[in-house]
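Final report, Chapter 2: Outcomes

The project's central promise was a pipeline that accepts a single protein chain and returns its three-dimensional structure in a standardized token representation, suitable for archiving and comparison. That pipeline is now operational. To close this chapter, we reproduce one record exactly as it appears in the project archive, with the input sequence first and the structure output second.
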Amino acid sequence: SNRSDVGPELIRALVSFDPAEYAERVFSRAHLGPDLEVTGYDLLPHIGFLTSIERLKLDPLDLVNLTALGNRPPRLVRLAVKRRARTGIVGLERWNGLTDLAIISTHFSVDLSPLSAIKSLKRLRLIVQRGISVRFDLSPLAGLGELTELEIEVDSSATVDLSAVKAHRNLVVKAPGSV
């Protein structure tokens, strides 16, 4: 067994113990490396104890929102979060410190309002799979002065009003021709 096998085992063991105590005692001392992929939601309240994590791929399945998220891991700067139909990102607003965020959603764009509190955000990718008349409301991004890159990917026709981010002088927007 090598070191890369240990992380998933430590995370799986969370449900076998008192989660809060286990997370504080084990996760805060475990050096699981800079990358982590999490599916499900058992870990969400305790994720802040994963002190070595810099990049996280998160799929909380059908959890309606992300209010169960604990504190942002102190070194985490890059997050890719998957959201299904009728789910959102409320709860993510507490994760200021992120610089790179990808939101992969199904059918519709999620409500981006929580992002207005993430002033550290530099790069944002909005990806909609199996889109249905996708509309992007970018107004929550208007106050994000650090934002330099906005990428929109959608596999169907979409409506995007870029007027909300026109004031961003250094913002590079990448969007398909159908946008």
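Archive annotation: The chain has a mean pLDDT of 90.
This record, like all others produced under the grant, will remain available to the consortium after the project formally closes.
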